[in-house]
Amino acid sequence: MRCLSFCLQFATGASKVLLCNRSARFPGRFPVLTNRYRVSLRYRPYMSIQKDKQAPSEEELRKKLSNFEYQVLREGGTERAFTGEYWDCHKKGVYECRACGQPLFHSDTKYDSGSGWPSFFAPIDKDSVTTRVDSSHGMVRTEVLCSVCSSHLGHVFPDGPTPTGLRYCMNSVCLKLREE
Ligand SMILES: [Zn+2]
Q1: Statement to judge: residues 105 and 26 lie in one domain
Q2: More confidently predicted of 50 and 125
Q3: From the record, what ranges are coiled-coil (predicted)?
Q4: Which of 40, 67, 152, 154 has the fewest CB atoms within 10 Å, measured from its CB?
Q5: pLDDT, tens digit, for every residue of 77-92?
Q6: Average pLDDT over residues 116-140
């Protein structure tokens, strides 16, 4: 049940995801069963989010971030499609929050959505991001924010691939890839 709990936590909002109970026999790996696909995601203990991590102050962020990074992360801006550093990146690693360093996404969950922005089907941990309703620009969307520093990261849409059916559409400028 512990593994089941982990899986459901990982696949936020994915009601159709079930954990294979054989996972206990494969320490270090978490096979995930879906209706049609089996996805194996390697478990990396170092990816754990830092729940007691302190958010940097606004003053620190102003010094640390470039004007454009600050505009997107702290003021909810958006980079133009097909212009960011990571939309076509296929390197392995952990994508961290550019503002505070919180691990947000792993390259194992990254896929080519064709949108021109880096897209993931799940965050690295259900507690690594938070969401809220965004009614700006005449649309109702679900905004995704870093759970530590509340920086804007992008939006999540219900048109992603299995196993979650979600598309976390992120701004490259909000992320920093720590390569493996
Ligand atoms: Zn952050």
Answers
A1: no
A2: 125
A3: none
A4: 67
A5: 999 999 999 999 999 9
A6: 96
| 144 and 97 assigned to the same domain | yes
Please check whether residues 78 and 141 belong to one and the same domain.
yes
Distance 126 CA to ligand 1 centre (A): 14
Tell me, what CATH number does 162's domain have?
Answer: 2.170.150.20
DSSP state of 136: G
Domain end (from 46, 61, 79): 46
The two tokens of residue 55 are 């958010």
Element (H, E) at 33: strand 29-33
The catalytic residue positions are 169
- Range of 11's domain? 2-46
pLDDT at position 168 over 50: yes
| Cβ-contact 40, 32 below 8 angstroms | yes
Distance in Å, CA 10 to ligand 1 centroid: 19
